[in-house]
Design a protein that fits this description.
6 helices
């Protein structure tokens, strides 16, 4: 529960911090301009608020993603610890950590992909009118499956990316603990 709550709260902060960069990235992808050109065009067209286009959809994506991502990771690790009959996460093999991180990332993206689709449409300028209105418009015009466009690519990317992330985190934790003398080598 702690990891779920912490993950959810971090999603608010990461959403606000990365929204302008997401807007510029999507603009570059859609319009084929440079990042500086994209920023100038967004600012010219919509002012500073244009850099926060789609913020609500990013929050709707990142809060549950981080909550499910970290919560799933810790739950999977706890199940693996029980299966391997170890008492601490530091005793799990790196292959177990790799699987736990990869599955957690895949679970997280599977649950939030509709909000990512909405975010991309809002930020590309293809849609206007807010997160829920955009979601309704997509469903009316294209059906429910349209909210899951890109799911396969997102999950295929999420598995190795998040597996690697947690192998890195757990490696760093183990090295720091050994350096500080908290865990026997």
């Amino acid at each position: 529960a702690t990891e779920v709550a912490l993950g959810g709260v971090t999603g608010v902060f990461t959403s606000v911090a990365m929204c302008p960069f997401e807007v510029i990235k999507v603009y570059v992808q859609v319009h084929g301009t440079s990042p500086a050109g994209a920023a100038r065009e967004v600012l010219r067209a919509d002012g500073p608020s244009g850099l926060y286009r789609g913020l609500v959809s990013i929050v709707c994506r990142d809060v549950p993603f981080n909550a499910f991502f970290y919560g799933s990771y810790e739950t999977i690790c706890a199940m693996l610890m029980q299966a391997h009959r170890v008492e601490r996460k530091e005793q799990l093999s790196f292959s177990s950590i790799f699987v736990a991180g990869g599955v957690a990332g895949s679970v997280g993206w599977s649950l939030i992909i509709p909000f990512d689709v909405v975010k991309t449409r809002l930020q590309s300028g293809e849609a206007r009118g807010g997160t829920l209105n955009t979601m309704r418009s997509i469903v009316r015009a294209e059906g429910w499956p349209a909210l899951f466009k890109g799911w396969t690519a997102a999950v295929v990317r999420a598995f190795p990316a998040n597996a690697g992330l947690f192998v890195g985190v757990e490696t760093a934790i183990r090295l720091m603990n050994r350096t500080m003398g908290e865990v026997p080598a």
